[in-house]
Design goal:
- Helices cover about 45% and strands about 10% of the residues.
- The chain is of the alpha/beta class.
- The protein has a domain of about 180 residues: Rossmann fold.
- Helix 1 packs across helix 10 and helix 3 packs antiparallel against helix 4.
Length: about 270
């Protein structure tokens, strides 16, 4: 009888993760023959703690992590299908969020999570982190934060302030040291896969994808025109509530985050 595996994709943010997870959800019936799938929608009780820890660095924040993980996996059937987890929030917040400068919280969070999964399922974890070249990653993170918070920095200033966050190497090394062998999958490579980043990730995990449906292109992040409008609004004297409403209207008008069928994502156009 084959031994169950833990297939863990914990991020990083802005590396094709939305494309991967949309691909998984679209093909969830096909995936169900091979794995039990868990993503943010399933892990929200856990990610409340991981987000908090990435802001505070206080280990007491993670004291209830095992209980939250128990809630998430309580109804997982006892069969031999693998456990597939894709959730970048397991690395904490995207750097650039208030009080979050880098991914330094990620190795500690993942040590807790991987240890729990090994004990619960008596299985080893196979970890793949997705990456991206520094310059486009910083630009994507910047545009994301313009929508999500009252960021007023210019793009060059943001890139300078958070340059260290785009150096994934030390964080990946720490994850591998504390959690076990860790593979990397650059977006510049995964986007060239016929099924996009999701297909490339499943290939690394050895899951057949011949019957899977591509998801096309989406969640590209604000255009140059739109992010400049967000920046102008962030620098205005609008109240916080009025600012949120104004940005939401612009995002809806621009179909920000929408998906369309057709082509495979291009790494220069992903969020």
């Amino acid at each position: 009888m084959p031994k169950r595996r833990i297939l863990l994709h914990p991020g990083f943010h802005k590396t094709g993760t939305s494309s991967i997870q949309h691909f998984f959800w679209t093909n969830r019936e096909e995936l169900a023959a091979h794995v039990h799938l868990f993503m943010l929608r399933h892990l929200k009780p856990v990610t409340q703690l991981t987000h908090s820890y990435s802001r505070s660095g206080n280990p007491l924040t993670l004291i209830d992590l095992a209980d939250r993980l128990d809630e998430v996996f309580a109804d997982t059937p006892h069969d031999t299908r693998d456990i597939l987890i894709s959730c970048e929030a397991l690395c904490g917040h995207l750097p650039g969020w208030p009080k979050v400068k880098t991914y330094q919280a990620a190795p500690i969070i993942l040590t807790y999570v991987v240890g729990y999964l090994r004990d619960r399922f008596d299985a080893e974890a196979e970890i793949v982190v997705t990456t991206r070249d520094a310059e486009p990653w910083l630009y994507s993170a910047y545009r994301h934060h313009l929508k999500g918070q009252r960021l007023t920095l210019a793009p060059d200033a943001f890139a300078t302030k958070y340059a260290k966050a785009a150096d994934f190497g030390p964080i990946i090394s720490a994850i591998a040291t504390q959690c076990g062998p860790t593979q990397t999958l650059p977006l510049e490579m995964s986007a060239r896969h016929p099924l996009g980043p999701g297909g490339a990730l499943l290939d690394l995990f050895g899951i057949p994808t011949d019957r899977f449906t591509p998801v096309g292109k989406g969640n590209e992040g604000p255009s140059d025109t739109l992010w400049r409008e967000f920046l102008t609004l962030n620098r205005s004297d609008l109240t916080d509530a009025a600012l949120i409403d104004a940005k939401e209207r612009l995002a809806k008008q621009s179909n920000l985050g929408g998906w369309r069928k057709g082509d495979v994502p291009n790494p220069t156009q992903l969020p």
